[in-house]
Write a structure and sequence with these properties.
It comes from Microvirga aerophila. With 273 residues, the protein is an alpha+beta fold. The chain contains five helices and 16 strands. It has a single domain, classed as Creatine Amidinohydrolase. 26% of the residues lie in helices and 25% in strands. β12 and β13 form a beta hairpin. It is globular. The mean pLDDT is 95. Bound molecules: 2-amino-4-trifluoromethylsulfanyl-butyric acid and cobalt (II) ion (2 copies).
Length: 273
């Protein structure tokens, strides 16, 4: 996700519209992105390090003729982001073993034939407490409700409203500091997709727009801080945080999701496949 950026908001008029060939390319990269996340389902276990998971993702991507967009992106050195428990996003894979009861978001972006597919899911490590599972289920429902708001003539604030209304009704909070983004040949493009209502930025959706929806939802307060590594964003109150992300396109009649799991592993109960 990108940092919520005021300059970007001012570029609301310059949103790229893509044609049928771009949609074909997005289907191909989106499917491969979902298959990469599917591959990791069996691997996320207590005792396994996020570095080991990152390596598997790298090898899968390389072996399928694609490239990991995050590797060397603004100095980032890994293929995936692995965000555990109170980490909101951009957790950096390392050698520490995952522990029973952790929830971890794995976020991966692939480049295939020059087009980007970006998706993330929550994975359960062993036996996970019910309240952590509930947060993951709520966050997944936020993503689905956000996607359901997408159609020509609707606006980005309709997406934000769908997500914020549901999250807050469930007594959770929506992270403000990171947002979804347009993508295509470019990794982070306009429009900005806020996961809450912000009347100062509201773009009408039109057929041919390509973007991610990637709500980050906290059990506690919405505030985050970025650690001294320059990437890892954590909740200030150390409450649990969850995220799901799909890459979608606006069609003539509604929305197409490019990063659906062929195996259904992106739906509850997620990685129990
Ligand atoms: N995949 C993330 C997103 O959703 C971006 C991660 S950038 C990285 O946009 F450099 F941290 F990997
Ligand atoms: Co993204
Ligand atoms: Co992502």
């Amino acid at each position: 996700m990108t940092e919520t950026n005021v300059m970007e908001r001012k570029r609301a008029n310059e949103i790229p519209l893509h044609g049928p060939e771009a949609f074909e390319a997005m289907r191909r990269v989106g499917r491969l992105t979902a298959e990469c996340l599917d591959l990791l389902v069996d691997k996320v276990q207590p005792g396994v390090s996020t570095d080991a998971i990152d390596k598997l993702a790298f090898e899968f991507i390389r072996d399928h003729g694609a490239y990991p967009a995050c590797l060397h992106y603004r100095g980032y050195t890994k293929t995936t982001c692995t965000s555990i428990n109170h980490v909101v996003c951009h957790g950096i894979p390392n050698e520490k073993p995952l522990r029973d009861g952790d929830i971890v978001n794995i976020d991966v972006t692939l480049i295939l034939d020059g087009w980007h597919g970006d998706s993330s899911r929550m994975y359960y490590v062993g036996e996970v407490a019910r309240r952590a599972q509930r947060l993951c289920e709520i966050t997944y429902e936020c993503l689905l409700r956000g996607i359901a708001a997408v159609r020509p003539g609707a606006t980005t604030n309709d997406i934000g409203a769908a997500i914020q209304t549901y999250a807050e009704a469930e007594r959770c909070s929506v992270v403000r500091d990171f947002c979804g983004h347009g993508l295509g040949r470019v990794f982070h493009d306009s429009p900005t997709i806020l996961h809450y209502v912000e009347p100062a930025y509201n773009v009408e959706l039109r057929p041919g727009m390509l973007f991610t929806i990637e709500p980050m939802i906290n059990l506690g307060r919405p505030q985050v801080k970025v650690l001294s590594d320059g990437w890892t964003a954590v909740t200030r109150d150390r409450s649990l945080s969850a995220q799901f992300e799909h890459t979608v396109g606006v069609t003539e009649t509604g929305v197409e999701i490019f990063t659906l799991s062929p195996k259904g592993y992106d739906k509850p109960p997620f990685n129990l496949g």
